[in-house]
Amino acid sequence: MLKVSGLSVAYGPIQAVRDVSFEVRQGELVSLLGSNGAGKSTTLRAVSGLIRASSGSVTIEGRNLLALAPSARVSCGIAHVPEGRRVFASMSVFENLALGGYTVPGLAMEETLGAVFDLFPLLRERRNQTSGTLSGGEQQMLAIGRALMSRPKLLIMDEPTMGLSPKMVDVILAKIDDIRRQGTTILMVEQNAMDAIRMSSRVYVMRTGGIVFEGAGDALTPDIIKALYLG
Ligand code: ATP
Questions:
Q1: What pLDDT digit, counting tens, does each position of 129-156 carry?
Q2: CATH assignment of the domain containing 190
Q3: What is the pTM of this model?
Q4: Residues in contact with ligand 1 (CB, 6 Å cut-off)
Q5: Which end is more exposed in the chain, N or C (fewer Cβ atoms within 10 Å of the end residue's Cβ)?
């Protein structure tokens, strides 16, 4: 479904991602792993258009994305849940969700909203609450719900459990599993490597801007992981 070939991204003189190629097939949950600064977030941002690639190609179902603005990529079926959640704190839960749906015209908003509320009943209860007063885990549910409002084919998630309590980490990861089971393809960066490996169809490990391992998670023993992370 998603094909990334020879992707390179630079921040001025800093080459953050170099010649990265990977794919995500229909129905898969694929994780990008690796230590801080490896280029994982930059890769996700280049796919969803939040940052410009210097070379390479990104296609979804054969359609080239790199020339498109982020909003047009949403229309192609890509939704990005950013690192740090970034919900609109002064707006209500409902208003945040409505914003997630408006970029794709013609969606049955009420029906999609119902599906998001079924996945996250807490958001239904809190639909009129100001989003900034939600806990971190609840804000993460909202950020995921907002992304689902565009009915993405590919859901991109950057560190969805960052800063959450161990209990809430389990809740969020279980929801991500549910979303995949319901048929949404997922590309994720997750710092809990063992959890990510357990949940993923396949993983890619990045180091200093490149991919150093690709395969099924069960090929990654703790020793191999340590070696890949530490170099
Ligand atoms: P982390 O888990 O710390 O977010 P990451 O694997 O997602 O790590 P990136 O955030 O993609 O890594 O960063 C890749 C490289 O690009 C790093 O060297 C980082 O310092 C650099 N970088 C990231 N964002 C910027 C920016 N806005 N301006 C300049 N350099 C940046």
A1: 999 999 999 999 999 999 999 999 999 9
A2: 3.40.50.300
A3: 0.92
A4: 11, 14, 16, 34, 36-42
A5: C
